[in-house]
Amino acid sequence: MRTSQDEVEYYSWLLNLGNGELSNVYGLPEDIIEIPNSFIEEGDLITAIFGDSIEITDATVEAIANKAILTLLNNDVHTMNDKILSQVQGEHSTYCSVDTIAEEEGVILTYYPAEFLNSLNPTGMPPHEIKLKPGAVIMLLRNLNRKHSLCNGTRLYVKSLKAKVIHAVALNGKAKGQTVLISKIDLISQDNNLPVQMLRHQFPVMLAFAMTINKSQGQPLDIGEIYLPLPARLKLARENFDYPEKYWENVLWYNETKVELFDRNKTRRVWRRQNAELHPKNTIPTVKHVGGNIMLWGCFSAKGPGQLIRIHERMNGAMYLEILSANLLPSARALKMKHGWVFKHDNDPKHTARVTKEWLHKKHMKVLEWLSQYQDFNPIENLWRELKVRVAQRQAQNITALEEICMEEWANIPTTVCANLVKTYRKHLTSVIANKGYTI
C-alpha cells in the first residue's frame, strides 16, 4: 500500500479502518478486512520501491533510506532484506557470530552444539550470519550510547566494512549525520521459547530496507509499502497442490509424538439414563499421578510404517542426526522406496541445523521442508492417532509395557491404512485452498 501525500482515498480508508467503519459487503468474518485493489501493488514490490538495481551513494542514500517495506513477521523481513541486498551494487561481506550457552546448573553443554545454536534466531537478536555491503541501510538492535542518541531502532547506512568494525553514519534522530564505529558485542537472548539462555557475539545490527511494522514506529518514511503474504497454510497448500498422487506415494513422512501411560486426553462416550452420570459403570477411574509418558520417533510411506524408536532424552540437533543415521535409510530400504524418494520433515531448528543439512546432502536425499507449526499437513499425525487408539485398548500398566505395546501395534498397522492416508492427501490440500488456508 502506497502512502503518498496526495492519496486522500487511502487516508480516508485508513481512518475508517481505525474507527471500525469499513463496509462488509462480502460477509467476511469480523477479523478479516478487504483491501481495495487500488491499494495493491500488482508487480514486484521490491522493484516498485527500489528499482531493478540499487546504487547507493552519499547523494542518494537519504532518498533510499526514506523508503521501506513493512511486514508482520521477522522471517519475511529477513527474506526481503536478503533480496534487496542482492540488488545493491557491490560485493558483500559476511560476518558470523560465535554462539554459546550461558552456564547454568543442570544444563549439559554438549546437548547444544554450535551448529544448532547457529540455526536459532531468537527475538531481538541479530542472525548468526550477517551479509552487508557499503551503502546498505542497517538498524541498531541495542542501545549503544543513549547520550549520543545511538539507541535501539536507530537507522544508519554503511560507509565501509572492516574485519572487526562497521563504519556507518546515522540517518535519523538527534544522531543524524554522526559517524559511528560499531564492533561486535555479547548479546543475551531474552526469548522465553528457548530452554536455555543463549549468548551471541555479533554486531548488534540488522538490515533495514525492510522491517516489521512494530520496528517502523517512529521512523521517518516517505514511502512505506506493506507486504502481506498469503496465509502460510494457503501458500503451503498451493505450492504443493500440483504434485500428482504418485509423487506423494514416494514420500517418507516423519515426526515425533508423545504417548501417555494413562491417556487423560481421550474422550469416551457412553449411553446412560438421565441423572446416572455418577454411576460406577458410567465413570472412568482416575490416577492421581499420571504415570509418565514416552517420546517416539517414527516414519511411514504409502507402503507401510517404517521404523519406530523411543527417544529417551530431550531431542537436539546431535541426537536427531544420530536417529536419522540409524533409522532413515533402513526404513527406506525396508519399504522399498523408489529411486528419487523424498524425505519430509519440518523447519524445526534441529532439522535445519548445518550438520543435518550437510548429512542429508551427503546422502543425496531430496528433502521436502515444511512449516513446523502446521502439523495437520503431515499425514503421520493421523497415523499417530491410529497408534494411540490401539495402544489405549491394550491398557499398559507401566512404562516398559507401554513401549512394548507401542512397538507391537506400530508393526501391526495395516499397509492399507498408510496407503489411504497418502491417497487422500491431495484432497486435504484442496480443502485448505477452498477454505482460503483456514482451519478445515
Describe this structure in words.
This is DNA helicase Pif1-like 2B domain-containing protein. Residues 115-161 form the DNA helicase Pif1-like 2B domain. InterPro entries: P-loop_NTPase, Pif1-like_2B_dom, RNaseH_sf. This protein is of the alpha+beta class and 440 residues long. It contains 14 helices and 18 strands. The chain has helices at 8-18, 45-50, 61-65, 74-87, 114-118, 213-216, 232-241, 245-249, 317-334, 354-362, 380-394, 399-412, 415-423, 425-434; strands at 67-71, 93-96, 98-101, 129-132, 137-140, 155-161, 166-170, 179-182, 185-188, 198-202, 205-207, 210-212, 223-226, 251-260, 293-301, 304-311, 342-346, 366-370. Strands 8-7-6-5-11 form a five-stranded antiparallel sheet. β6 (155-161) and β7 form a beta hairpin. It is globular, with a radius of gyration of 27 Å.
End-to-end CA span:
30 Å
Number of helices: 14
How many β-strand stretches?
A: 18
Structural class: alpha+beta
In one word, what is the shape?
globular
- Spatial sequence of strands, sheet with the most strands: 8-7-6-5-11
Task: Please compute the radius of gyration using only Cα atoms.
Answer: 27 Å
Main sheet characteristics: 5 strands, antiparallel
Strand proportion = 15-25%
What proportion of the residues is helical, as a percent range? 25-40%
SSE inventory with pairings:
Elements: H1 8-18, H2 45-50, H3 61-65, E1 67-71, H4 74-87, E2 93-96, E3 98-101, H5 114-118, E4 129-132, E5 137-140, E6 155-161, E7 166-170, E8 179-182, E9 185-188, E10 198-202, E11 205-207, E12 210-212, H6 213-216, E13 223-226, H7 232-241, H8 245-249, E14 251-260, E15 293-301, E16 304-311, H9 317-334, E17 342-346, H10 354-362, E18 366-370, H11 380-394, H12 399-412, H13 415-423, H14 425-434
Parallel strand pairs: 1-12, 1-13, 14-17, 17-18
Antiparallel strand pairs: 2-4, 3-10, 5-6, 5-11, 6-7, 7-8, 9-10, 14-15, 15-16
Helix pairs in contact: 7-14, 11-12
Protein name: DNA helicase Pif1-like 2B domain-containing protein
Domain DNA helicase Pif1-like 2B: 115-161
Organism: Ranitomeya imitator
